[in-house]
Amino acid sequence: MLGLNYKLRELEKLGSNIRVGLIGCGQMGRGMISQIESMKGMRVVATADLYPEVIQQAYLRAGIPASSILLTNELEQAEKAIEQGKVVGTTSTDLVVSLPNVDVVVDATGIPNIGAEIAWKTILNKKHIVMLNVEADVTVGPLLKRMADASGVVYTGSAGDEPGAIMELYDFADAIGFEIVALGKGKNNTLNYAANPTSAAEEAKAKGASPKMIASFQDGTKTMVEMNAVANATGFLPDVAGMHGPSATVHELPELFQLKEHGGILNNKKVVDFVNGVAPGVFAIVSSDKPEVHHEMNYLKMGSGPNYVLYRPYHLTSLETPLSVARAYFHNAATIAPWKGLQAETVAVAKVDLEPGFRLDGIGGYTVYGRLLSQADASRAKALPIGLVDSNVVMKRPVKKGEIITFDDIEQEQESTIWKLRSLQQQSMAEAPAAVKSIVHV
């Protein structure tokens, strides 16, 4: 089978390309546009964002002349422009997902409710969807994947994002028969549960990033969500609530991720975790019950065993997303998806004392942070998934700082799309697969 690079070159030789629709032209989206302009056989033909001038600048910086950029919300104009070899910028997400000359849609919004709605509509329009929105994926991804399967399209997370990079290590180790003990990622800053957009503002400004995004890194929510996606893909679970999160070097990982009776930190095998000190890398801890395999690993200078670390020292985020686009288009395959269903849950924890009437503000805000639990533990606690937290959620009971927020503690002023999809997901989990096919045609 030809590699993706050869397939892309062949596609371009035929005078064609994979036509990508992008929604969200922030840092990730802008990088992806430029990267794809350097590739063969692929182009971002349409981009949606709240700010058309941002889209225009992204295309210009990618080397596309102003005369080849059309800003419009009209479907017919957009279709004609793309047929003429131009690219389109729009404020309408519906335009991008419904364009006949878009093959694959990429969600780079980072907002759970918006991402869920984009994925839903993309699947209804019979297009592949690549999610750079792990927050939406861990909340309603199992439903969206089942919908995509029923529609004959691909629902996938992104290569280059840490869950996708971890999945590549998992697939490699699993294919050659290793026992996989743990899967994890590095974290490049100490957990600060109190981090908020104000405290993160200086770092955000220096990095040219959103203060809420930086706060979600600092308070650990992003790490919890990313490992949640790995759990739902593999069935691996957090060993303890919130994971262990030790500090270590790469060389210390094999010894660290052993069972407690063997001197390690683990209560169980097949766990997800994170480590301070190995960022921006991802890792898999592997072992074997075969003496000859241990002999070979020792000969290859992989360590003395019984555990070994497979480590990838980088992940290129949205610059690698085109690989997932191509994999979906050519092979009808996902990079990472919730194949195991809802195995874990990132639940909302109070950042401050919350009183009745307090309005929650979502991921990276002032009121909540995420903690990863097994789905069974989250269900028993009636814990509120952090992907369901938005400005429509209001406290009706007091919750102390550091406590998990439950469904009983809150009320909704208005039901958002992601809440509706979550309800459908719960319903479909209890019903036959045929129920999902009926949802697709709603």
Automatic annotation (TrEMBL):
Q: Kindly give the Gene3D superfamilies that the UniProt entry links to this protein.
A: NAD(P)-binding Rossmann-like Domain
Matching InterPro entries, A to Z?
Answer: Asp/hSer_DH_NAD-bd, DRL_cat, NAD(P)-bd_dom_sf, SAF
Q: Boundaries of each SAF domain copy?
A: 345-411
Name one molecular function that GO assigns to this entry: NADP binding
What's the protein called, per UniProt?
Answer: SAF domain-containing protein
- Source organism: Ectobacillus ponti
